[in-house]
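[recover] target loaded
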């Protein structure tokens, strides 16, 4: 494949190419003259990758302290002759007793998280560095997170180093393409259990504490180094002939954890992937940790996968979407063991390479191992839909995202990486064919095992295996921002089709867009009520795909231009199809097709071609017959958006009695399964406003009403209390206090904190806002979970004064909070508004901040454009 046909690709290829020794020579004075500056600059990373190799870290940490951990480190590596000074990274509070090849080096020169090791102390070939260091331990903002269990007082520690916090934990060369072998030695209080990347080699007494020594790992990137320590309870599964898997959780939650099911799901994923890739599981062991207040859904650390405890412990009977989502998280993290851990992107500009493939592979695993899960329907509704939403805004960016410094890498995480990337990969697999796709992935993983790769390496392997030239595909999907809008052009000739074509154009005009057509192969369905449907395959030739085989066929009832959901783009139905969806969507038996048609109707609302109140009416017409939990959940969520955001208040209030009556009927319908009834209740809790609906919520709290014959459990109880607080119910304070007394679970304090954030009182909001920044004991996960309650849409006028202060803190948040907190913050504060006044605040901020970092600006523009669309729909008066 020739990816150098255009200048942009040439530039990017030059940036991605490994630095040679000539580069080292040209930049040899970088550290000594002006220092590398804050963070890990791309230039620094390229230089170091050419200087050293075969890195090993021997790490010892004492975890018996409360606010800090003291440690020692020995670093070994091989160095290229004549490669100049070497920069070591460390941002922790203390670094001392540094010895370089048996010669001491002062640490007084440490600046901006770096220390220069002069070439006079370095050798050609083998080198060894030792030092003492200390790192902070805290509830948030530290490399070691400390969590205290309010139930039993137990203290738990765990690390989280992605993308560039390894150098906050220990001195290192913190970049993904300097993979290293790790050997951990961790001293913890007696009675604790410690888990790390490698297998346990030895455990011994160390005074009143216990020392845990772990075997050396395979080569892994620094961000994947990890440990967890605390009074964990655990389960171990060791079937004959298979690897043991141990599962760890808080001791106070042992009775709530369905450990056997979780272990079985992880094991099934390992087996399936090893077979499908024809490459064995690449690491020595696999442990699973349910981390309390974990700020991600999961993290793929080698040998010790961390999962979000809240998402993995069901405190009430789970619905199908909850079960599917939990399993999908497992499949995603286990896929990372191959895509991300074994083969890692060379630099975080290719972040999509690991995240996109893990999400895509998770859907494939689920589709095969759980055929009843309708995995590709989930993929459409949960993965592709958020991708379309973000990619159609002015805040979008290409899959390959230029990155000058790892300090900014955390802001590259988002729907383009997690949602667009897997959607594009699905199109790639369809375009090249199953056989070539699978062989290409095997070759890619085999050729780069325990190493690093780029998107060019991936497309090169797939292109060679399939015989398909992927040059245009790489340019249009990897290097170009945005997505196509595909419109159907159907022209009749009497009662027959005259011509049928699909026409694509950019969904939004973006500055600097290079133009051109997105390569794409799709299937087009012609739907009939009186004969079998016809499905035709077509490939875009430039901006148009003409379906010559459709000419002369009977005019269809409807046309769906992306049958099977293989294409990537906004597929907008024509007027004929919209009319058919409105009347007949509930009669479609295939769940994926029905979900696609519902999505086409919703996209038509957002395209201002269908009025939002019309959507709600259609939804209520077809809702009684909908039996798919995932579709029901999605269309109801969109109906709530239409009511709460898109419709002017008068129109929304006119529809609410019918809306709430439909939900109550669904809740009370004994013919429906628990999941459908629970979903209806969740939607009622989120939108209840009339005395009838609020009265039912109070009855559920009091135990006078049931759900599917059983009393509601604690998560739903707190959701109801939160709703009554949000609407300013006169008895809300008393019900809140009663719930605090009633709930004795380990989650009671957190749930109360979240619920109280919904209080419609400016002083309460101000107190929360202050705590978000000034309370060092507030766990980041708790803060993130409370943002939606703080920004209840019905309180938009109350929270509007907080919008500008929230925007003013964006750079601080990027610097001091984890990956997903910044987009969650922006989404909560901007999406909590719906009027032109709020849009003016956002636009005023953007105008006043021309130097706002581009990654923050893009995320804000994404939310801003959604708010602008809301304002446009509300003002359209459709």
């Amino acid at each position: 494949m020739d990816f150098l046909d255009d200048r942009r690709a040439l530039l990017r290829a030059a940036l991605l190419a490994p630095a040679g020794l000539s580069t080292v020579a040209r930049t040899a004075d970088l550290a000594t003259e002006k220092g590398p500056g804050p963070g890990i600059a791309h230039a620094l990373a390229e230089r170091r990758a050419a200087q050293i190799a075969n890195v090993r870290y021997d790490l010892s940490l004492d975890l018996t302290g409360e606010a800090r951990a003291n440690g020692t480190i020995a670093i070994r590596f091989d160095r290229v002759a004549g490669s100049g000074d070497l920069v070591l990274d460390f941002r922790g509070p203390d670094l001392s007793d540094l010895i370089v090849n048996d010669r001491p080096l002062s640490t007084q020169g440490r600046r901006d998280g770096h220390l220069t090791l002069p070439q006079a102390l370095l050798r050609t070939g083998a080198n060894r560095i030792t030092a003492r260091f200390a790192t902070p331990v805290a509830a948030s903002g530290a490399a070691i997170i400390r969590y205290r269990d309010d139930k039993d007082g137990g203290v738990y520690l765990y690390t989280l180093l992605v993308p560039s916090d390894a150098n906050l934990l220990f001195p290192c060369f913190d970049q993904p393409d300097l993979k290293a072998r790790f050997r951990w030695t961790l001293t913890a209080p007696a009675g604790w259990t410690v888990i790390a990347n490698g297998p346990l080699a030895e455990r011994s007494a160390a005074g009143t504490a216990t020392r845990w020594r772990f075997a050396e790992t395979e080569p892994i990137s620094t961000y994947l180094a990890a440990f967890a320590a605390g009074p964990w309870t655990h389960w171990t599964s060791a079937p004959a002939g298979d690897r043991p898997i141990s599962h760890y959780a808080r001791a106070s939650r042992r009775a709530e954890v369905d450990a056997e099911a979780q272990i079985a799901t992880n094991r099934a994923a390992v087996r399936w992937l090893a077979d499908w890739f024809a490459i064995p599981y690449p690491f020595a062991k696999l442990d699973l940790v349910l981390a309390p207040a974990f700020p991600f859904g999961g993290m793929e650390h080698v040998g010790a996968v961390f999962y979000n405890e809240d998402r993995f412990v069901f405190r009430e009977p789970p619905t199908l979407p909850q079960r599917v989502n939990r399993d999908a998280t497992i499949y995603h993290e286990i896929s990372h063991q191959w895509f991300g851990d074994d083969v890692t992107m060379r630099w975080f500009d290719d972040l999509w390479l690991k995240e996109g493939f893990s999400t895509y592979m998770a859907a494939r695993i689920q589709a095969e191992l759980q055929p009843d899960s309708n995995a590709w329907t989930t993929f459409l509704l949960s993965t592709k839909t958020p991708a379309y939403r973000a990619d159609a805004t002015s805040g979008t960016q290409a899959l390959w995202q230029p990155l000058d410094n790892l300090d900014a890498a955390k802001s590259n995480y988002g729907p383009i990486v997690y949602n667009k990337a897997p959607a594009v990969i699905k199109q790639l697999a369809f375009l090249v064919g199953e056989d070539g796709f699978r062989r290409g992935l095997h070759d890619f993983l085999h050729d780069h095992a325990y190493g690093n790769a780029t998107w060019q390496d991936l497309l090169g392997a797939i292109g060679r295996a399939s015989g398909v030239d992927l040059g245009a595909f790489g340019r249009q999907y990897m290097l170009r921002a945005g997505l196509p809008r595909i419109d159907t052009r159907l022209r009749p000739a009497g009662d027959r089709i005259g011509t049928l074509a699909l026409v694509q154009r950019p969904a939004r005009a973006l500055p600097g867009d290079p133009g051109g057509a997105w390569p794409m192969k799709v299937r087009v369905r012609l739907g009939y009520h009186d004969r079998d449907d016809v499905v035709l395959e077509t490939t875009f030739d430039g901006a148009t795909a003409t379906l010559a085989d459709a000419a002369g066929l009977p005019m269809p009832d409807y046309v769906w231009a992306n049958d099977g959901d293989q294409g990537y783009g906004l597929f907008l139905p024509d007027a004929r199809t919209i009319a058919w969806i409105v009347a007949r969507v509930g009669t479609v038996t295939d769940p994926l097709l029905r979900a696609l048609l519902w999505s086409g109707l919703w996209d038509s609302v957002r395209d201002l071609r269908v009025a939002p109140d019309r959507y709600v009416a259609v939804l209520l017409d077809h809702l009684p017959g909908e039996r798919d939990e995932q579709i029901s959940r999605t269309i109801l969520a969109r109906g709530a958006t239409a009511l709460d955001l898109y419709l002017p208040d008068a129109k929304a209030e006119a529809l609410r009695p019918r809306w709430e009556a439909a939900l109550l009927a669904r809740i009370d319908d004994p013919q429906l399964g628990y999941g459908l009834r629970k979903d209806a209740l969740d939607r009622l809790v989120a939108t209840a406003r009339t005395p009838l609906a609020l009265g039912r919520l109070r009855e559920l709290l009091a135990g006078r009403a049931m759900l599917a014959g059983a009393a509601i459990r604690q998560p739903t109880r707190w959701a109801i209390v939160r709703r009554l607080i949000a609407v300013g119910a006169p008895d809300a304070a008393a019900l809140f206090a009663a719930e605090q007394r009633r709930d004795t679970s380990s989650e009671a304090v957190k749930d109360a904190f979240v619920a109280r954030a919904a209080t419609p009182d400016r002083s309460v909001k101000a107190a929360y806002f202050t705590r978000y920044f000034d309370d060092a004991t507030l766990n980041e996960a708790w803060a993130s979970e409370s943002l939606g309650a703080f920004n209840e849409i019905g309180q938009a006028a109350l929270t509007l004064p907080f919008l500008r202060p929230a925007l003013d803190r964006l750079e601080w948040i990027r610097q001091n909070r984890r990956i997903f907190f910044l987009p969650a913050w922006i989404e909560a504060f901007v999406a909590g508004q719906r009027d032109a006044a709020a849009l003016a605040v956002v636009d005023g901020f953007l105008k006043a901040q021309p130097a706002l970092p581009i990654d923050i600006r893009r995320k804000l523009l994404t939310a801003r454009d959604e708010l602008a669309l809301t304002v446009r729909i509300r003002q359209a008066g459709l």
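[recover] notes: The radius of gyration is 28 Å.
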